[in-house]
Amino acid sequence: MADTAQLFFSFPPNEPLADEVYDEEITAFLQKLDKISAKEYTKAGGGTDSCLLNHLNPAVQTLPYLKVLIAYIAPVEKFSKVPDGIPQYLRPDGAMWAQLVEFLGKYDPIQIRYVGKDWRRLLAFVYRVAAGFDMPVLAIHPFRSALLRLDPEGGVLTTHHLTFLRLCMASQAYGEALPILSNIIHSFPPKDASNIDAPYLCSNHAVSGAFINEKSGFTDLVSIEQVQEYFLLGGMAYIALQMWEDAQIFLEHVLVTPTQNVATGMMVEAYRKWLLVGCLATGQVPKPSKLINQGAIKDLKASSPHYTSLADIFVSENAPRLAAEVSEGAQLWIDDGNAGLVHMLPIHLQRFFVAKLEKTYSAIPVSMVANMLGLPADQAQPYLQELISQGHLNAIIESSSGDPILRFFMDPAAGPKAKSEADHLADMYKQAERLKVLSEYVRDADNKLELTKEYILKQLAAEQEKRTQASLEASGTFSVLGSGAMDVGHDRPELFEGMSGMPGGEDEADEDLMEAM
């Protein structure tokens, strides 16, 4: 036991190490830990004062702490009876459950890169216990902590992101999803390590895809269906929080996923919500992105005539007709799971109507607004005050004497929505930082593109064409070949058999970058 404890505290060393040395030492350390039997790890007993976990710091002795946890959960992680088969100390109110949750929030993010499969086993166990006790909310905090600890930027979409969102939706804990949803997804996990910028797992990598991949054990490859479900659930979470602009962006991500000229079921669901959310976000029917497959968009429009009609009526500002349409299609909205969204349309129609009044009036009596909206006088002023407090109106209500007046501010530098110079500078700095981050992701994508077989073949073809042209000019012979004559993508299609498709060109990348802003 003394020798085991001495081994546990032998890594990491106090002094910093070069990446190569660190990689060698942690690999050797893991080999020694793997030689220790599960019986040795667990002989002190789970949940007792003498348990090894009580003597280790998860932030420092990350690897031995993880090995002890794995040794305890291994006998029950595949047990068919949950919760009956789970010992008391591993249940949500047990001592070791608390230690497991603490570990997922405090582990060393560098050491953990070497034990992706064990990290994943912990998450699977947490999910299984939470599901077994029918308490999905129990797993939300551990999952979120583990994901952000591994990848603070949250830019690589893993299978665990989707599991996390399912937990949030099942618990109706929509706000808990925001720390994950607010991160920019810039890539999907590759099959192998993509160590373009540095050769070791412990190195300071520009993007987390270098260590979050299928081979490292942290995640499976992500399918198109999983990508669509992640963004659909994310859009639904934003809808529940009434964050319409963010919801619209997430739902559009579902629509632009690659498809073989046919809309999937999730695309249809996303499209219908996207139409409604677009109306709530801007007061207008949203325009489909040019990135959406044209065959798919035809399917989407053909499958959603009632939603298209509803959106058109909303934009026409015909309140009685909108109310009739909402009522007539009540069962359809319920069946599609969109009844809540649909019933928001008449409410927000009033908001957009009031907002447009500033184009006609600089000031207007609240009583007149109440008549226009068909509201009782005692309800109009609180309603308008709510719109002002939510930032929908740049106005104030003056009620010093007589009938209260709604006064609009035409100058954006005045009124409750006015921003100081410091606020504008802060916004500019935030945008600049966001651009900087996005440019790093684009640069990484370019690097990956330059290593693909397709890119290399085209570069070789271009070089060959240049040499041929130079040779012809040197010999006094003029080339009659077009610039595309050496394009192996057309003349040598057999070279591309078994290869993946080329990503979009620079123009598409630039357009995507601007849309992300």
Descriptive account of the structure:
Strands 1-3-2 form a three-stranded antiparallel β-sheet. It has 23 helices and three strands. By secondary structure, it is mainly α. The chain has three domains: 221 residues, no CATH class; 131 residues; 83 residues, Orthogonal Bundle (Arc Repressor Mutant, subunit A).
Instruction: Name the overall outline.
Output: globular
Oligomer: single chain
**Cα distance spanning the termini:** 57 Å
Order of helices and strands: HHHHHHHHHHHHHHHHHEHHEEHHHH
Averaged pLDDT, please? 85
- Helical stretch tally: 23
Which bin fits the share of residues in helices? Answer: 55-70%
Indicate the radius of gyration in whole angstroms. 29 Å
What are the low-pLDDT stretches, counting only 5+ consecutive residues below 50? 478-517
Tally of DSSP β-strands? 3
Give the tally of structural domains. 3
Estimate what percentage of residues fall within beta strands. under 5%
Structural class: mainly alpha
Report strand order across the widest sheet: 1-3-2
Largest sheet: 3 strands, antiparallel
Summary?
Belongs to the CSN3 family. It contains 23 helices and three strands. With 517 residues, the chain is mostly helical.
Topology:
Layout: H1 2-8, H2 19-34, H3 38-42, H4 62-73, H5 95-106, H6 116-132, H7 137-150, H8 159-171, H9 178-181, H10 224-240, H11 244-255, H12 265-282, H13 294-302, H14 305-316, H15 319-328, H16 330-335, H17 339-356, E1 363-365, H18 366-373, H19 377-389, E2 395-398, E3 405-408, H20 421-450, H21 453-474, H22 488-491, H23 506-516
